C-alpha cells in the first residue's frame, strides 16, 4: 500500500517543505480525528474512515479533492455518485 507517508520517518522531511503542514500533523497527533469531517464539506458525501485516518483533518471526499487538485477533468454530465461508489468499494 502507498498510504504510509504520514509515518514519523517521513514527517521530518516535510517540516521544511511546509510549516503549516507540520502544524497540522502536530495537531493531528494530539487528536487523531480532530478536524477530520465525516462528510465532505463540498458535496456532503460520507468520507471513508480509512481516508480520514490517512489524511488527518481531511474535509473533502475523493472526488472533490481530485477536482480541487486538478488531476482529473470535471466530468460534467456523468453520474458522479455512481463512479464514486466504484472507487470506494
Ligand atoms: Zn465531495
Give an account of the 3D structure.
- Helices cover 51% and strands 0% of the residues.
- It has helices at 8-17, 19-30, 49-54, 62-69, 80-88.
- The radius of gyration is 15 Å and the shape is globular.
- It starts with 7 loop residues before the first helix and ends with a helix.
- Zinc ion (ZN) is lined by residues 40, 42-43, 45, 60-61, 63-64.
Low-confidence stretches: none
Question: Would you count the extended β strands for me?
Answer: 0
Q: Can you list the ligands bound to this structure?
A: zinc ion
**Biggest sheet details:** none
Short description:
With 89 residues, the protein is mainly α. It contains 5 helices and no strands.
Q: What keywords describe this structure?
A:
89 residues, 51% helix, single chain, binds zinc ion, mainly alpha
Q: What is this structure's SSE topology?
A:
Elements: H1 8-17, H2 19-30, H3 49-54, H4 62-69, H5 80-88
Helix pairs in contact: 1-2
This protein binds zinc ion.
Zinc ion (ZN) is lined by residues 40, 42-43, 45, 60-61, 63-64.
Amino acid at each position: 500500500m502507498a498510504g504510509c507517508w504520514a509515518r514519523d520517518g517521513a514527517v521530518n522531511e516535510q517540516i521544511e517543505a511546509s510549516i503549516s503542514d507540520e502544524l497540522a500533523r502536530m495537531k493531528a497527533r494530539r487528536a487523531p480525528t480532530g478536524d477530520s469531517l465525516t462528510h465532505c464539506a463540498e458535496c456532503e458525501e460520507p468520507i471513508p474512515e480509512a481516508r480520514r485516518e490517512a489524511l488527518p483533518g481531511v474535509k473533502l471526499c475523493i472526488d472533490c479533492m481530485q477536482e480541487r487538485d486538478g488531476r482529473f477533468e470535471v466530468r460534467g454530465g456523468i453520474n458522479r455518485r455512481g463512479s464514486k461508489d466504484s472507487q470506494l468499494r
